[in-house]
Amino acid sequence: MPDIPRKKVGIVSCSGEEIPEGTISRIATRLVLEKLRPEDTVTICLPLFLAGGQEERAFARSYPTIAVDGCPKLCAKHGTERHSGQVTDVIVVSELLNGQEIKPGWRRSLDGQGMRLAEQVAEAIAGRVDSILKATHKEVEPDLIPVTIQDKAPLSRPAQEQTCACTAQGLPVMRIDVGGVSVGLAGLTAILEQAYALGKKPDQVTKTQLLETVKVYNYIPAGTEAEYAEALLREYAALCRRKER
What's the mean pLDDT when you consider all of the chain? Predict the structure, then answer.
């Protein structure tokens, strides 16, 4: 377990892929985790949380948690409260961005305008994080802290156990070639699209980040990380080439 500060705020992001506000929720959450408040926040994977991830549920019971929901259905909020208790705060993207143009195409990826709205939502999340940290002094043992993209020991679950509150059929599976074997990875399409929307270059840093993110949603056999990382970078580079044509 990495050596990280004890006081953290968990962020549970909407997993809905049917509405553009869901995409904005997820990208705004990553902006907070990676850029705005990387030392103060961790992400709680909603699909794994609902599937029974004990680390995620233990964290949400003991630490302050913010639910970032795309719409008033409040799947992230209700899912967290059903299994771990009341969340500390809720941000509903559709309400926060009320009156601003939301494009249907953003459910796949964000353009410049969509990224500006995601940044607006990220600033709102960061503000809530600051307020919560000023008001709370809760602590739990470090081994209850769930893993984020910055951590070195991602949580893993077999793909067949993963479900999502916002998509009845679970996370979509994308098949890629890993060392000559066709492998299905849950959520990979969205992960690659999100990396592109965030302006990630197909380089060694992104390769590591892709692998760490994929591990949150998928079981990666020990000793195969390098092969998976190369395959992920290859798929991401191909996506970048298609987008830039």
Answer: 77
- CB proximity list for 102: less than 8 A, separation 6 or greater: 20, 21, 24, 94, 117
Q: Are residues 53 and 114 in the same domain?
A: yes
Q: How far is CA 69 from the centre of its chain?
A: 12
Tell me the C-alpha distance between 59 and 73, whole Å. 23
Say if residue 18 is in the same domain as residue 135.
yes
For the chain, what is the radius of gyration of the CA atoms?
17
Q: Model pTM?
A: 0.54
Q: Is residue 138 domain-shared with residue 31, that is, in the same domain?
A: yes
Q: How far apart are the first and last CA of the chain?
A: 42
> How many CA atoms lie within 13 Å of 71's alpha carbon, on the beta-carbon side?
13
Domain that holds residue 109: 9-144
Q: What is the pLDDT of residue 32?
A: 93
CA distance 79 to 12: 10
